[in-house]
Amino acid sequence: MEARIQFRVDEETKHLAQMMAASEGRTLSDACRELTEQLAEEQKKKMLHDAWLSEQVAAAFSKLESNQASFISHQAANQRMAEHKARIYR
Q1: From its record, what is one biological process in GO terms (predicted)?
Q2: Structural domain includes residue 3
């Protein structure tokens, strides 16, 4: 099912946008559709990332609540990170 989107801009803006789209071999409707599709794809990616992050946080709290979590000192965490970065840079 397709939906219609309408919005208003001044005549000069419309004319310039039509000229730009035409110079690229597209209609203004094509350009607006492509932009809308790009925005929707970016939102999908954001939603997927948000869902993944929520799962990670829930898993971490679940581990904590079931006493499966282990804690390390700030110094040990910094050391691990430095070692990890060194492996990446090699």
Answers
A1: regulation of DNA-templated transcription
A2: no
